[in-house]
Amino acid sequence: MKLMEYADREMLAMDVANMLASELRAALQQRDTVTFAVPGGTTPGPVFDSLCGVKLEWDRVHVILTDERWVPESNDQSNAALIRGRLLKDQAAAARFTPYFSAESTIDAVAANLSEKLSDGLPIDVLLLGMGADMHTASLFPGADGLAAALAPDAPMFVALTLPGQPIRRFTLSAPVLQGAMSTHVLITGAQKRQALDQAADLPVDQAPIRTVLSEGTFHWSAE
What we know:
Elements: E1 2-6, H1 9-30, E2 34-38, H2 45-51, E3 61-65, E4 67-69, H3 79-86, E5 96-97, H4 107-118, E6 126-130, H5 147-151, E7 158-161, E8 170-173, H6 175-179, E9 184-189, H7 191-200, E10 218-222
Parallel strand pairs: 1-10, 2-3, 2-6, 3-5, 6-9, 9-10
Antiparallel strand pairs: 4-8, 7-8
Helix pairs in contact: 1-2
C-alpha cells in the first residue's frame, strides 16, 4: 500500500486533482477515449472543484460512477446529481457521463444491461475511490446482500446490493473491475478512517472490502 499524508484537506484536494489531471492526459495520449470512475460523497467534492477547471480533452473522457443509490437525480442522495454539480461543469462539462438510475427499469436489469454495454470501456483508466470507517469502498459494504457476488473473480462489471436495514438498494462496480483499473487513488480523512485502514490488512476481504484495492491503490490521507 502506498500512503501519502497531507497537512489538511485543502492540500490533499489540490494534490490529488493535479495527479488525476496528469494521469488523464497521459491516458488520452494512448487511447481515443478514457474511462474515469469517480465516487459520490462529500470528501471528493473539493477535488472535483479543482479538477473541473483543468484544460484537457474532456470530450474524450467517459465519466462513470463507482457506485450509486437507486434514486433519481432529484433525490438529495443521488451521486449522479452530486457529480453533475461538482465535476461536470466548466471545462469538464464536455465529458461524457453515464448515470445509472432508470425509472423504467429495475436495478438488477440495469446492472446486467450496463455491464454488457460499458465493458468495452474497461479497464478503467483512472479510478478515484473513498473509504468508510467500516472499511467499505464503492458500495462494497461488509454484510451487504450481494457482496459475495460483487467480490467474485468472475463478477460482472456492475452488481446490485442491499444493505441491512436500508430500503434503498445500491449499484456498484464489482471488485475485479476495481482491481483491474490502470491507476487507483483512495481518499481518506480523519483518525478513525486511518485506524480502519491500518486494520484492514489483517481482515478477510468480506469484512474489509477496501482490501480489494489495498495493494493497487495510492491512499491519500489527511488528519483533518
